[in-house]
Specification:
By secondary structure, the protein is α/β, with parallel strands linked by helices. It is 41% helix and 19% strand. The protein has 2 domains: 168 residues, Rossmann fold, CATH 3.40.50.720; 122 residues, N-(1-d-carboxylethyl)-l-norvaline Dehydrogenase, domain 2 (Orthogonal Bundle). A 5-stranded parallel beta sheet has the order 5-2-1-6-7, with helices on one face. Strands 3, 4, 8, 9 and 10 form a 5-stranded mixed beta sheet that branches. Helix 6 runs parallel beside helix 10, helix 8 packs antiparallel against helix 9 and helix 11 crosses helix 12.
Length: 303
């Protein structure tokens, strides 16, 4: 399968490397020091499920150098979605499927502003990864799972051949909202506390804040017509108890490294969409307010 990975960070780098190691033709789009390091030393993945090293990955700075592909693993950061969407056309033919794996909930709608709806799929990624150093992806714990929607059968088969835990969902929109509810709470609380998952779930006040943040997102999804189950938040809290104690969310990694934050599209989006829907979201509004000074990077105050 011919695949383009647009955004070779934790998600794109990990899953793209697994797919390439399994024999697929995978083209990685990256930039800056990360791209330069991969050109010099290849792409490395450090994982408890097995390390791997792609000595000569197919690397590009722009999609225009690649040509049409079967699937685009669209994994840029949320603030880059719209700009990246405008660069997708050279990768597309009639049957190309662009699968967004961003953390937020609004990426498919943004993609449809720039490419045909027939090319836009749905996807969800569950994994704890980050760029350990330029050219090196670190996978924490054993969780690695992709959900894809209808039309992604061939991609799902390629993932299975690469030992990626993948499932197809008939209701990918609900699956996306389930991830959104979960991640909004987890990313917000771990970033706010500057502590890993284990410390946050063990502290009674932080645990209650995490549950309340998820409940606000769940309530928003239900009002928007998403069929989220009644006991979903309680089930997610039980799942959090199974995660690796040292796990850090991608937004927490960005905060600790002084990078831009996805908060406007996570806790900030819940606050914004709740307000537009006539709902209250005081927990997410407060978390977002506390993170706003760091949204553009630690050295830049929010306007």
């Amino acid at each position: 399968m011919r695949i383009a990975v647009y955004g070779t960070g934790g998600v794109g780098g990990y899953f793209g490397a697994r797919l390439a190691a399994a024999g697929n033709e995978v083209h990685f789009i990256a930039r800056g020091a990360h791209l330069q390091a991969m050109r010099e030393k290849g792409l490395r993945v450090e994982s408890g499920l097995g390390d791997l090293h792609l000595e000569h990955p197919l690397l590009h700075e722009a999609p225009s150098a690649i040509g049409p592909v079967d699937v685009v693993v669209f994994a840029v950061k949320l603030w880059d979605v719209e700009a990246a969407a405008q660069q997708l056309k050279p990768l597309l033919h009639e049957r190309t499927l662009v699968i967004p794996f961003q953390n937020g909930i609004e990426a498919p709608e943004l993609l449809r502003k720039h490419i045909s709806s027939r090319n836009v799929g749905g996807g969800v990624a569950y994994i704890a990864t980050g760029i350990k150093a330029p050219g090196v992806i670190l996978h924490t714990g054993a969780m690695q799972r992709l959900l894809v929607g209808p039309g992604a059968e061939a991609f799902a088969q390629a993932c299975k051949g690469a030992a990626i835990n993948v499932e197809q969902s008939a209701d990918i929109d609900r699956a996306r909202w389930e991830k959104f509810v979960f991640l909004v709470g987890l990313s917000g609380v771990t970033s706010l506390a500057r502590r890993p998952v284990g410390a946050c779930r063990a502290d009674p006040e932080l645990r209650a804040t995490l549950e309340a943040a998820m409940a606000e997102s769940w309530r928003l999804g239900r009002q928007r017509g998403v069929a989220l189950q009644d006991g979903f938040v309680a089930e997610r809290m039980r799942f959090i108890d199974t995660l690796h104690a040292d796990m850090r969310t991608s937004m927490q990694h960005d905060l600790e490294n002084g990078n831009r934050l996805e908060a406007p599209w996570l806790c900030g989006a819940v606050a914004r969409m709740s307000r537009e829907s006539g709902l209250e979201a005081p927990v997410n509004r407060t978390i977002y307010a506390a993170l706003r000074p760091y949204v553009h990077g630690s050295a830049v105050e929010a306007a």
